[in-house]
Design brief:
CATH architecture: 3-Layer(aba) Sandwich
Strand order of the largest sheet: 2-3-1-4-5
Bound molecules: thymidine-5'-diphosphate
Number of helices: 8
Strand content: 5-15%
Number of domains: 1
Helix content: 55-70%
CATH superfamily: P-loop containing nucleotide triphosphate hydrolases
Distance between the termini: 28 Å
Shape: globular
Length: about 220
């Protein structure tokens, strides 16, 4: 399938515990209230094959995983999602909301793991074939606050998909800084919102960014 598309592709990004997934769900509900057809998807995952790859990626026991393996598995799941779900929905004219996309690989594997952004964009060319989000919302959160939220959540649910969010705090600081840098490098596509406020207040900013795109 070619990458010619008619719908809108919006991605949600941010460090651990930023609240981006909650915002995605809220925006999906609002768009549906307005009569839009919305596909909600998430990475790594999104498809049945992607979910199998996700288990390998996030299993807290897989401590020997190398950065390049991590990068290629992220993009393997993404290639499947792009081809099986995202491009077909866009060609039907739908709005696709994706929880994390290539910017996550840029920030986590390219910068925090140190593989470099060029490597990430090279693999992106193969896996995504030119698909770039029309809008990317980065929900920003201070590293300590974000990790506090996530660790609380992991304890409550005895979550095992924790290999990446259990990285040292220095790793997560690099992630946050890289998102801030991305937002300042690409101000047209990437909108930064402050995730430390109430869900309602964050949603107002996110919704305004989405409305600006729709209009
Ligand atoms: P997930 O449980 O979906 O958490 P979150 O709510 O933070 O999205 O875990 C996804 C983890 O995978 C998260 O730690 C970020 C990481 N990740 C990457 O390192 N690179 C990527 O390309 C993607 C999509 C995710």
């Amino acid at each position: 399938m070619s990458t010619i598309k008619r719908g809108l592709f919006i991605t949600f990004e941010g460090p651990e515990g930023s609240g981006k997934s909650t915002q995605l769900r809220r925006i999906a509900a609002r768009l549906r209230e307005e009569g839009r057809t919305v596909l909600e998807t998430a990475e790594p995952g999104g498809t049945a094959i992607g979910m199998q790859i996700r288990r390998v990626l996030l299993d807290s026991k897989n401590l020997e995983m190398r950065p390049t393996t991590e990068l290629l598995l992220m993009f393997a799941a993404r290639a499947q999602n792009v081809d099986e779900a995202i491009l077909p929905a866009l060609s039907r004219g739908e709005i696709v909301l994706c929880d994390r996309f290539t910017d996550s690989s840029l920030v986590y594997q390219g910068i925090a793991r140190g593989l470099g952004s060029e490597v990430v964009y090279e693999v992106d060319r193969i896996a995504c074939r030119g698909l770039v989000p029309d809008l990317t919302i980065v929900v920003d959160i201070a590293t300590e606050l974000g990790l506090e939220r996530v660790h609380g959540r992991n304890r409550k649910t005895q979550h095992v998909e924790t290999r990446i969010d259990e990285q040292a705090i220095g790793f997560h600081r690099k992630v946050r800084d890289a998102y801030l840098q991305l937002a300042s490098d690409e101000p047209k596509r990437v909108k930064l919102v402050d995730g430390s406020r109430s869900e309602e207040n964050v949603e107002k900013d996110v919704w305004n960014a989405v409305l600006a795109l729709l209009n």
